[in-house]
Amino acid sequence: MTQSATTRWILIGFQLLLALFVLLPFFWMVSVSLKPATEPFAIPARLWPQAPTLENYVTAFRPEFRTYFMNSLIVSGASVLITVSLGLLAAYSFTRGRLLVITALMGLVVLAQMFPHSAIIIPFYKLMRSVDLLNTYASLILAYVSVTLPVAVWMLRGFLQKLPVSLEEAAAIDGAAPLRIFWEIVVPLARPGIIATSVYVLIVTWQEFLFALSFTSTKDMRTLPVGLNDFIGQYGIRYGELMASSVMVSVPVIAVFFFLQRYFVAGLTAGAVKG
Amino acid sequence: MATVELKNLRKNFGSFVALEGLNLSIEDGEFLVLLGPSGCGKSTTMRLVAGLEDPSGGDILIGGSRVNEIPARDRDLAMVFQNYALYPHMTVGENISYPLKIARVPKTERLRRAKDAAAKVEMDHLLTRRPAELSGGQRQRVALARAIVRTPRLFLMDEPLSNLDAKLRTVMRAELKHLQKELSTTTIYVTHDQVEAMTLADRIVILNNAVIQQMGTPAEIYARPANTFVAGFIGSPPMNLISGAVSGGMFTHKGGTMQVGTADGAVTLGVRPEDIALSHGDADIMGKVYSSELLGDCTLVNVRVGDSLVAAKVGADEGMEMDTPVGLKLRQERLHFFDTDSGNRRET
Asked: Nearest 5°: phi and psi at B166?
């Protein structure tokens, strides 16, 4: 299909408009983080500070922030590891399994995605309390694994369906046992899918607020999104430091996504059309 | 090296019968070709022998031992797949040596044997390449090298040449045949290409609708097809099959009448294109030229007889204009007769 020059320019115009709409809040976040304490509400408002300063970053990077960062890293890292490991095993069964019950189970996995977090948070809270896991990493990791696993299975299944079964058959003929086939043939070939799913789980868990706020009660267990609340006080909001913290919270995920985005896009569309 | 025996082997996929009571014995060192159209059960047979499918009934014996319950990895056989099934994340060398790695052969020994196997198929200079960097023919050779690297009891080849172009297929066919004779390993080869079957096989098994139609050497099958299916499947171009009736030693059909030596009844007469000559006098069949194709060393003349076409392979300079009336003379001693109702060969 060929496009006329006019259509192309119109499309580019729309894309720029869309990019502007999406990126403006991020730009404003960075801009405010670099403004001195008096400038965020100055009238007339400035898009870019007159005298940019890193003062807010220095204040925001306090010991608590480092604790929150480590907590987020532990919780997200563990969630990624567990979700992707379990998801890969489940997706492999769903892809290669021949039993009808497996197809039915896949339907349940889809169903599990349909409940909003706010609907399951109370049962989750009760469960965590009953096993005395509140205010621990485990409570958050378990909750995150349970909410990200269905999508992870779905994404990984799309990737695995594209792997020719003859490769696994060839390995079996070459003498490999099922576990070895999985580890030496399936896992390396599913690497793009594993990366894409890891990025997805990382993005979801890194920014998650509701579970983190409900399940943690002390500062030493809080994660970054909850930690940002520290700048919202009874008498006002410290916007400069809040935005500086927000930038620091966003940077790791943006960096990961930037380097691995091609896998992520492929992951969401894998299996969507017949190859 | 080993013998293979299939006893009353059956395979159903739900209500679909893929294989129905197959009985077959394969000699040690034999090159056996399973030939038939798509869906006839030939690949299923191979996959059952490989252990990639479980039989619905019957027994599979390799080297005299029943292997029905033995998984593919323990059957000690090698398989070349139609799509080669090379591991894309491994180099050529790693692909070839993978079966040895699984068998825990020491690394130095592994490398030496992988290099030897690669040399046999002239791929030893590309050991560090990945499959994506190879041509179709080179990938095919790597798949072959992976099969021969550990001298298995049995080679299984599932249409390994079907993805190659015609020229490369001819070259690889010769190489395969040479390699199999050199290694003397029992080989089961699946194809739907009768030329491949004729040129490679010690013995051909022709399958159709999940049942063996005929087995024998290529020469036997070509000379004495057991039924009309085999007669129409083997040969390029295939045998002409002319329906008619025999009464009092005379065969009557839409293109004429001729004397034959078979019993009365509804008969399908079979004659190969090379056993037909153009006749300017006394003719067995009369018709009009439908097309004339020069093939280089000969000409294929298709003659319309009634509502069917009869192909005759004649001299390169005997081509004719379309719609020219023509008489055909059949070589009496090379005629085949089949019972029209059953399709089975009639012994004259």
From this structure: -55, -40
Whether domain B4-229 has CATH 2.30.30.60: the reply is no
> ipTM score of the complex?
0.84
DSSP B88: T
Whole-model pTM? 0.81
Q: Does A166 touch chain B (CB under 8 A)?
A: yes
Q: How many domains is chain A built from? A: 2
Instruction: Give the domain B238-339 fold.
Output: OB fold (Dihydrolipoamide Acetyltransferase, E2P) (2.40.50)
Q: Which amino acid is at B242?
A: I
Give dist(CA B30, CA B202) in Å, integer: 6
Average pLDDT, chain B: 91
Q: Which domain holds residue A25?
A: 1-53
Please answer yes or no on whether B103 and A175 come within 8 Å at the CB atom.
yes
Q: Is residue A158 domain-shared with residue A177, that is, in the same domain?
A: yes
Inform me whether the pLDDT recorded for B293 exceeds 70: yes
- Chain B positions in Cβ-Cβ contact with residue A175 (cut-off 8 Å): 73-74, 99, 102-103
Q: A66 with A45, same domain?
A: no
Q: Are residues A81 and A101 in the same domain?
A: yes
Tens of pLDDT, residue by residue over A138-164, are 999 999 999 999 999 989 998 899 899
Instruction: Tell whether A220 is within 8 A of chain B (Cβ).
Output: no
A contacts of B156 (beta carbons < 8 Å): 173
B187 sits in which H/E element: strand B186-191
Please indicate, yes or no, if residue A156 is contained in any of the structural domains.
yes
Q: Would you state the pLDDT for residue A117?
A: 78
Tracing tokens 């925001």 back to the chain, one arrives at A60
The per-residue pLDDT for range B104-134, each reduced to its tens digit, is 999 999 999 999 999 988 888 999 999 999 9
**What are the residue ranges spanned by the domains of chain B?**
4-229, 238-339
Nearest residue, CB atoms, B85 vs list A167, A175, A189: A167
Q: Which residues of B touch A (CB under 8 A)?
A: 50-52, 71-74, 77-79, 81-83, 85-89, 98-99, 102-103, 146, 156
Best of A174, A185, A186, A189 to substitute, by most chain B Cβ atoms within 10 angstroms, is A174
Sign of the Cα torsion B47, B52, B58, B64 reads positive
Q: How confident is the model at residue A2 (pLDDT cuts 50, 70, 90)?
A: low
A90 shares its domain with A196: yes
User: What is d(CA B340, CA B267) in angstroms, rounded to the nearest whole number?
Assistant: 5
Taking an 8 Å cut-off on Cβ atoms, the answer to whether A170 and B103 are in contact is: no
Which range is least confidently modeled, A24-28, A84-88, A101-105, B250-254? Answer: A101-105
Residues written for chain A: 275
